[in-house]
Amino acid sequence: MPLSSAVPRPFGRALCAMVTPFTATGGLDLDRARKLAVDLVGRGCDGLVLNGTTGESPTTTDAEKAALIGAVRDALGPDTPLVAGVGTADTAHTVELARQAERAGADGLLVVAPYYSRPPQAAVEAHFRRVADATGLPLVLYDIPGRTGTRIEPETLLRLAGHPRIVAVKDCAYDLLGTTKVLARTSLAYYSGCEEMNLPLYAIGGAGFISTVANVAPSALRAVLDAFDAGDTAGAARLNRHTIALAELMMASGLPGTVTAKALLDAGPVREPLQPADRETVDGLRAAYEELVRKPAQDPTTEL
């Protein structure tokens, strides 16, 4: 039996960390959000992550977060997994957002390690347990120490894996050894949160990805997983190299992925302190997108 067939995937394989569309004047654009969500699922996304970093959660209100979940749920119906970002630096606020997301129709919660205060591992563990106990929804723990300043250490993950509602990890720790140890000893589903790790993590038993680049190239990213599952490892590697070129332009060009994704989408402005990409950058992104993603019709990575 192939390894991929035995891997737990509580929310599917291919998830998009969706941008939050805004109107020209900066308000929440729920009509555009509904259309974008339907489009992303139609182009290969198994599920969506709302109100994450890419969704500009630091600058959306609690009411806007709930409204976005409700609008996307109405647009997609009950069968598409929706994971709601609820992580904050404040445990009580995170619990409040978790309960709100459950009421709004989310299927799971994405919970980042508490940031800025740099709590020790015992406090990190207690934070996640408080959130996991607050609702009936499963949790995806988000390990991204480059942003939070706090790692969710492998030993902490091993302990947390025993909680019945802690089911997955979004992995941006760049620690393949630590990830492999947790995969070997738990049933946690590991989702790559860094596009360059999508295929390597999948090859060692990862569940799939939660991707910002999927906002603009969902079927290209999914094609990598499809090829690997079909046993075409050479094809998966080739398709992965293709996606890495686009990912580097979007994620490693000095601008946040939210900015570059919105530069390629009709999704409105970003909110301050983010600033929109300048015209030269937008033109470069669009030219690179056309070169890298517009493929012959017979190629499964065709996006346009």
How would you concisely characterize the structure shown here?
With 304 residues, the protein is α/β, with parallel strands linked by helices.
What features would you describe in this structure?
Pathway: Amino-acid biosynthesis; L-lysine biosynthesis via DAP pathway; (S)-tetrahydrodipicolinate from L-aspartate: step 3/4. The record marks 53, 116 as: Part of a proton relay during catalysis. This protein has 304 residues and is an alpha/beta fold. It is built from 12 helices and 8 strands. It has helices at residues 30-42, 62-76, 91-104, 121-132, 145-148, 154-160, 176-185, 198-203, 218-229, 233-251, 257-264, 279-293, and strands at residues 14-17, 47-50, 82-85, 108-112, 139-143, 166-171, 189-192, 208-211. Strands 1-2-3-4-5-6-7-8 form an 8-stranded parallel β-barrel, surrounded by 5 helices. α8 links the parallel β7 and β8. α1 (30-42) crosses α2 and α2 (62-76) packs parallel to α3. The longest helix has 19 residues, at 233-251. The protein starts with 13 loop residues before the first strand and ends in an 11-residue tail after the last helix.
